[in-house]
Amino acid sequence: MHIITKEEVFAKIMSAERPQCPHCGVEMNIWEVPPVPCDDGLGWGTPYLYMCFNDECPTYVQGWDHIEGTYGRTASYRCICYPEGRNFEYMSVFGPFGGKGQIIDEEVLAEQEAMKEKVEKGFAVLDEMEARKDAAGVLTILVDANEPARVRVRAAEMIRDIGTPAEIDPLREKDFGNDIIRKKVEAAVKKIHERNFTRECPFCAEIIKSRAKICKHCSKEVAGQ
Ligand SMILES: [Zn+2]
Ligand SMILES: [Zn+2]
Fold first, then answer.
1. Cβ distance 63 to 81 under 8 Å?
2. How far is residue 31 from each of residues 9, 34, 133, 145, 163, measured CA to CA in Å?
3. Which of 18, 158, 207, 216 is the most buried (most CB within 10 A)?
4. What is the residue-averaged pLDDT of the chain?
5. What ranges in the chain are assigned the alpha helix state H?
6. Where are the domains of the chain?
């Protein structure tokens, strides 16, 4: 037996055409059912529903008077639609914002999707650069604040392995803002120095040999420093 996961239901409902509210004709929103059954205690039998959140919808507008007159409570209805059978029903709401927190925001989803693509693209570019040992290329991605943090972290790890002393100054001059990236860059600089038997002069910060006794840039004595 195949158990359908919430993600599968979500993928299906996102790709399906959305129904129009039979009462007002407005396209319905995708609504995430709250985790705790709130209505009759039986749950909804589905993690997502379509719901009409149009405040002008006649069902919703007239619902206030109807419930007030029938039950003496301040509440109304919104039209819902089950994704499987596409049958329409009503859900009671207790104010204009009742249930609105559960609307799946399309813009947020679109942003998440765009970010995912950006990360995947960044990783692919980095892989190519690593294959041809293009440390300068990896550096441009690492210092680019428009790249996703995950891509820049990967770039920092890469430069640790393929970086040369030429990348150290640009790395030192950059303020990375993000703690994780900054620590990765620290580790990368340390590793590049180790690999090249170099270090930075404690007086002028220029790159010198690990074993240098006198800095060739500022002529200061650096032995044992
Ligand atoms: Zn409606
Ligand atoms: Zn120096």
1. no
2. 12, 9, 48, 35, 49
3. 158
4. 86
5. 6-15, 58-71, 106-131, 135-142, 149-162, 168-173, 179-196
6. 6-102, 114-209
Q: Do residues 210 and 193 touch, judged by C-beta distance below 8 A?
A: yes
What's the pLDDT band for 102 if we cut at 50, 70, 90?
A: confident
Kindly give the distance from the C-alpha atom of residue 30 to the centroid of ligand 1, in angstroms, as a whole number.
Answer: 13
CA of 73 to the centre of ligand 1 (A): 21
Pairwise CA distance, residues 205 & 216, whole Å: 11
Give pLDDT tens digits for 33-79: 876 544 444 466 778 889 999 989 999 999 888 877 877 777 888 99
Centre of ligand 1 from the C-alpha of residue 49, in Å: 14
Give the distance (Å) from ligand 1 centre to CA of residue 177: 47
CA of 62 to the centre of ligand 1 (A): 11
Residue 50 has φ and ψ, to the nearest 5°, of -95, 140
Work out the burial of residue 124: count CB atoms within 10 Å of its CB; fewer than 13 is exposed, 13-18 middle, 19 or more buried: exposed
Q: Which residues contact 20 (CB under 8 A, 6 or more apart)?
A: 26, 27, 28
The answer to whether the CB of 174 falls within 8 A of the CB of 139 is no
Start-to-end Cα distance in the chain: 69
- State in Å: Cα 29 to ligand 1 middle: 10
